[in-house]
Amino acid sequence: MTTLTIGGGQVLRPDMTVERADILVDSDAGEILAIGDADEVGNGDEYLDASDGLVIPGLINAHTHVAMTLFRGHADDKELDAWLQEDIWPVEAELQADDVRAGALLGIAEMIRSGTTAFADMYFFMDEVADVVADTGIRATLGHGCITVGKDDEQAHDDFKHSLDFARTYDGHADGRVQTMFTPHSLTTVDEKFYEEYIPVARDEGIPIHIHANETVNEVDPIVEEHDQRPLEYADSLDVLADDSFIAHGVHVDEDERDLLAERDTSVIHCPASNMKLASGMAPVQKLLDADVSVGLGTDGAASNNDLDMFDEMRDAAMVGKLATMDASAVPAEAVVRMATEGSASALGIDSGRIEAGANADLAVVDLSGEHLKPPHNLVSHLAYAVRGSDVCHTVCDGAVLMEDRTLQTIDLDDVKDTATERAHALVERAE
After folding, report:
1. Where does Zn(2+) bind (predicted)?
2. Nearby residues of 15 by Cβ (< 8 Å), 6 or more positions away
3. What span, in angstroms and rounded, lies between the C-alpha atoms of 296 and 286?
4. CA–CA gap between residue 99 and residue 94 (Å, rounded)
5. Cis peptide leading into 306, omega within 30 of 0?
6. pLDDT of 207-243, one tens digit each?
7. Could you tell me the CA-to-CA distances from 331 to 131, 174, 382, 420 in Å, in that order?
8. Are 199 and 183 in contact (CB under 8 A)?
């Protein structure tokens, strides 16, 4: 057994208290062995210095489209429908496997450097993303996004079959760091008969389901008009909602839908920056929490955010949560830190998001020496309101050090940035 000690710092415990402690990790098994005093924990084979730092659970980006880093700044300042139809879908039609690989490498580098150790991704050429996950050491839940808009029946069926085949083939990839899911795009971009045919297959095979839902009013009204049901009631009639399902956005959910989500134990992934940028609305996060709905946090893609920094996302979630309720006590710091860690972990079904013996050794160390983090009155408050992704000095996933002293250990960052820039320019030129 090879062990790693993360020592000399403070540790964020599951009850949101902070204490001086060292952490001993089994690097081979990828799990936390012990947390305590240096004498109690002992010396590992390797040592990671957390002096003047706070060790936190690795952040979990529970909804993104990581290869969309290639579209960062390509199309801004439009509402969702126009943004997708006029700018994003035409370029995505020209995507090649090497584009997705380059975009995924860039996004994963950005996430590791800002303390994210796991993410959920719905996109295309997902075999490339799975291989990048294997190479870089991060953890991921992956699904091939499938859609029926603009496709004939044969093309659409092929898309859905491919999504299921990907889920079957790649579950457990990268020494178990990859989990898979079945990912129809949304309730308005997929014809009902495809839900009726393929959801039962996913259910029979135990494949988790992830969709976009209730993101905009334009996604809610057509379903109400056509089916005389709210979108999540309609989704439930198709057996989409369950304890291994999670939905992205959930901006426009009413009280009955909140109760339904709680009853089905279906998680909601809040994406506040994307929702604000696309003017989709303000999700009722405090009402979801009050209804005992499990809420995680995600950045969405870099095309609609425009970064993958989960610390930014926590701050946005706390701020917009207060504005949505006109209550300064709503969505407090502790709640958003939980959303970015254990809430997202619960949605993805992974044993991460907490620092306890037996949990996955997915950890990040925040350097507390910056002037914007002084004085240290309340470190949980700092995590939500003041910490930046660039304050992360070390990142550990599955017991392996992915970044030490701001230097990536598994990625050639300069090469990744150059390649992604070249691929992005060539992609847009092809589309134009």
Report:
1. 63, 65, 212, 300
2. none
3. 12
4. 9
5. yes
6. 999 999 999 999 999 999 999 999 999 999 999 999 9
7. 37, 36, 15, 36
8. no
Number of Cβ atoms within 10 Å of the Cβ of 214: 27
In the three-class reduction of DSSP (H, G, I as helix; E, B as strand; rest coil), residue 121 is classed as strand
Cβ-based neighbours of 50, under 8 Å, separated by 6 or more: 6, 7, 8, 9, 10, 365, 394
Helix, coil or strand: residue 191 = coil
Backbone angles phi, psi at 78, to 5 degrees: -135, 155
Instruction: Please tell me the pTM assigned to this model.
Output: 0.97
Q: Give the burial class of 141: count Cβ atoms within 10 A of its Cβ; 0-12 exposed, 13-18 middle, 19 or more buried.
A: buried
- Encoding tokens for residue 14? 């599951």
User: pLDDT tens across 143-191, in order?
Assistant: 999 999 999 999 999 999 999 999 999 999 999 999 999 999 999 999 9
> Are the C-beta atoms of residues 253 and 232 closer than 8 Å to each other?
yes
Comparing CA positions, the residue from 289, 225, 224, 214 lying closest to residue 252 is 214
- The closest alpha carbon to 349, from 357, 364, 360, belongs to 360
Nearest to 296 by CA among 60, 16, 17: 60
